[in-house]
Amino acid sequence: MIVEIQKRFSDFDMYTHVNSAVYFTYFEYARVVALGQFFQKVSDTIWFVVAKQSCEYLEPILFNDIVFVELKIEKIGKSSFDISYIVKNDNKTFAKGLTTLVAIDKNT
After folding, report:
1. How are strands ordered across the β-sheet holding 67-76?
2. Residues 59-74: what's their mean pLDDT?
3. Element (H or E) spanning 105, and its range?
4. pLDDT band at residue 71 using 50, 70 and 90 as cut-offs
5. Sign of the CA dihedral 5, 98, 18, 87?
6. Which domain does 96 fall in, by range?
């Protein structure tokens, strides 16, 4: 799935590019857009929490860049799954990332 990102003025740092920490917010936004309905239907007691995240920064995102996040589920385990991300537009790949989500029962 591909999700368009709407950059905010606050995403930019003093070097006039998107701050490195904001990429994780872009991952989260794309994940919620892509998987939000799935998460709502699983169970009221099962939560998915982030166990691990990584980001490889390839090109800075500048103010006028249009940005999309392409995400896909890479690996499904017994109680976890990995989602990969490519932050890009038609001309550039800005970053690649990976998140491991783990299912937990909030009652235990």
Report:
1. 2-5, 67-76, 80-88, 93-105, 46-57
2. 96
3. strand 93-105
4. very high
5. negative
6. 2-105
The token duo for 69 is: 């996040």
Could you tell me the pTM of the whole model? 0.90
Q: How many structural domains does the chain have?
A: 1
- CATH code, 13: 3.10.129.10
* 1 or 36, greater pLDDT: 1
The average confidence (pLDDT) of the chain is 93
Provide the terminal-to-terminal Cα distance of the chain, rounded to the nearest Å: 33
Collapsing DSSP to helix, strand or coil, 100 comes out as strand
Rounded Cα–Cα distance for residues 53 and 101 (Å): 9
DSSP H helices, 1-108, are 22-42
